[in-house]
């Protein structure tokens, strides 16, 4: 258990052996540092570096000194076969480090990349190595990244890798939840789309089928839900796709009423939909947001922001003469209208009597002249340069920028705790 002391009996003999090893390691390290400091480039130091690296592969100075020695060796041989042998020895060392207990050593993977680019005839073997290491831990993102590096060197068709990735994601419970595999899959899909000119939306629909199987298997599988978020962001707007996502997630909620990811996916899709939501539908969504706050109180403010977005996008706040008025709605932000082309011609924005905490960038609202933000919770006056009229009474502003204030034709800041 965490935060509980281990009641392990200390063996003095074992401790003494460890002290001796540490002393010996430090002596060897200091010798190497002295050699490097003196400018010596001596191949005889490589065995010592081997021992040090096998124990502490994240010590960058060891690898850097090793590269200096290897680079000098390479400059003194003319035969390609001799150079190949030098690189092969380096690859053998990195494989030993990775295979023993340091499978996630950044510097070891970096050194392997540095070597492998010079021995093309070994590139195919690298796929077998990564497959072996991923069989030990299929979430090792270092190994996935290296595999992608090798695939680019080989210029392989991404279909082969998509099949490999699919087999891992659909095998056993561990495979279903694998952030690294999903990320790798997204990279291969991008390559497939770019190289083969295949309709990306069609590829994404097939990926949605993969996600559906994963989340129906385990609705708490965060990696699949995160991957689905990527699919949503990449997919060209499609009401049919949105509807399928919403219906699928509603089915999951019927089975597991506490699945926050299904609820969030519904909310994200409804915000992307062009359909006007009914009052009944909005009420249902607001109930789901309250449920999210109950299940996940740490993210309460985010969920309230999502509620604000839905309110603004689907309530009838746009008045005649390009005036947008949304008072007394308990809004916490108004980013949804600022980033929506539908409201770019708004001239006056009235959002008084809410709980808005900040003023977003208003540059997309090119025709905006007047903004009223009285009785909110705004702490900083920002993003209102050059407006004709700003009313920001009874907020929480303590400091102002004189240049910004002077750029506004008329401003009312009554009721703020200005210092």
UniProtKB/TrEMBL annotation:
Cross-referenced SUPFAM superfamilies: L domain-like (SSF52058), Protein prenylyltransferase (SSF48439)
Entry protein name: Geranylgeranyl transferase type-2 subunit alpha
Organism: Acrasis kona
Function (record text): Catalyzes the transfer of a geranyl-geranyl moiety from geranyl-geranyl pyrophosphate to cysteines occuring in specific C-terminal amino acid sequences.
UniProt GO cellular component terms: Rab-protein geranylgeranyltransferase complex
A Pfam family the protein falls into: PPTA
GO molecular function, one term: Rab geranylgeranyltransferase activity
Keywords: Leucine-rich repeat, Prenyltransferase, Repeat, Transferase
Record keyword Transferase present: yes
EC number(s) recorded for this UniProt protein: 2.5.1.60
InterPro entries for the chain: Leu-rich_rpt, Leu-rich_rpt_4, LRR_dom_sf, Prenyl_trans_a
Reactions this protein catalyses: geranylgeranyl diphosphate + L-cysteinyl-[protein] = S-geranylgeranyl-L-cysteinyl-[protein] + diphosphate
Family note: Belongs to the protein prenyltransferase subunit alpha family.
Gene Ontology terms: biological process: prenylation
PANTHER family in UniProt: GERANYLGERANYL TRANSFERASE TYPE-2 SUBUNIT ALPHA, PROTEIN FARNESYLTRANSFERASE ALPHA SUBUNIT/RAB GERANYLGERANYL TRANSFERASE ALPHA SUBUNIT
């Amino acid at each position: 258990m965490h935060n509980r002391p281990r009641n392990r009996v200390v063996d003095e003999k074992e401790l003494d052996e460890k002290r001796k090893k540490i002393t010996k390691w430090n002596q060897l390290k200091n010798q190497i540092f002295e050699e490097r400091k003196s400018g010596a480039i001596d191949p005889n130091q490589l065995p010592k570096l081997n021992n040090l690296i096998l124990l502490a592969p994240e010590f960058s100075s060891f690898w850097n000194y090793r590269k200096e020695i290897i680079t000098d060796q390479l400059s003194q041989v003319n035969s390609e076969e001799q150079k190949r042998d030098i690189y092969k020895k380096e690859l053998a060392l990195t494989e030993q480090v990775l295979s023993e207990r340091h499978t996630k050593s950044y510097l070891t993977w970096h050194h392997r990349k540095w070597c492998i680019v010079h021995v093309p005839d070994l590139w195919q073997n690298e796929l077998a190595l990564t497959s072996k290491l991923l069989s030990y831990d299929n979430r090792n993102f270092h190994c996935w990244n290296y595999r992608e590096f090798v695939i680019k060197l080989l210029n392989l068709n991404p279909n082969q890798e998509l099949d490999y990735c699919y087999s891992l994601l659909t095998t056993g419970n561990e495979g279903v939840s694998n952030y690294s595999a999903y990320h790798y899959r997204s990279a291969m899909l991008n390559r497939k789309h770019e190289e083969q000119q295949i309709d990306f939306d069609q590829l994404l629909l097939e990926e949605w089928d993969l996600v559906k199987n994963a989340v129906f298997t385990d609705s708490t599988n965060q990696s699949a839900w995160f991957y689905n978020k990527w699919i949503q962001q990449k997919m060209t707007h499609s009401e049919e796709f949105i509807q399928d996502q919403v219906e699928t997630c509603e089915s999951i909620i019927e089975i597991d009423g506490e699945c926050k990811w299904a609820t969030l996916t519904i909310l994200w899709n409804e915000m992307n939909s062009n359909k006007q939501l009914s009052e009944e539908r909005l009420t249902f969504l607001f109930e789901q947001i309250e449920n999210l706050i109950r299940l996940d109180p740490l993210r309460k403010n985010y969920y309230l922001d999502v509620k604000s977005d839905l309110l603004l996008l689907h309530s009838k706040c746009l008045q005649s003469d390009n005036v947008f008025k949304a008072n007394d709605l308990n809004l916490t932000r108004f980013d949804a209208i600022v980033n929506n082309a539908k409201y770019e011609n708004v001239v006056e924005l009235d959002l008084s009597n809410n709980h808005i905490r900040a003023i977003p960038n208003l540059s997309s609202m090119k025709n905006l002249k007047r903004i009223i933000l009285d009785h909110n919770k705004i702490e900083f006056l920002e993003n209102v340069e050059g407006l004709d009229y700003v009313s920001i009474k009874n907020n929480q502003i303590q400091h102002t920028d004189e240049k910004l204030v002077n750029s506004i034709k008329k401003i009312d800041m009554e009721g703020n705790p200005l210092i």
